[in-house]
Amino acid sequence: MKVAIIGTGYVGLPTGVGLAELGNQVTCIDREPSKIDALNAGKITLFEEGLEELFHKNVKAGRIKFTTSMKEGIESADLVIIAVGTPPHPITKEADMKYIHAAATELADYLTGYTVVATKSTVPVGTGDDIETLISKKNPKADFDVVSLPEFLREGFAVYDFFHPDRIVVGANTKRAKEVISELYKPFKGKTNMLFVKRRSSETIKYASNAFLAIKIHYINEMANFCEKSGADVYEVAMGMGADSRIGPKFLNPGPGYGGSCFPKDTNAMAFMGRMNGVDLSLIETAIKGNDQRKKQMAKRVLDCVAGLKTPRIAVLGLAFKGGTDDCRESPAMEILGEILSVPGPKVTVYDPKAMDNARKMLGNKVMYAKDAYEAAKGADVLVILTEWNSFKKLDLAKLAGLMNHKRIVDLRNTFRTEDATAAGFEYCGVGK
Ligand code: NAD
Question: Is the beta carbon of 82 within 6 A of some atom in ligand 1?
Answer without folding.
Answer: no
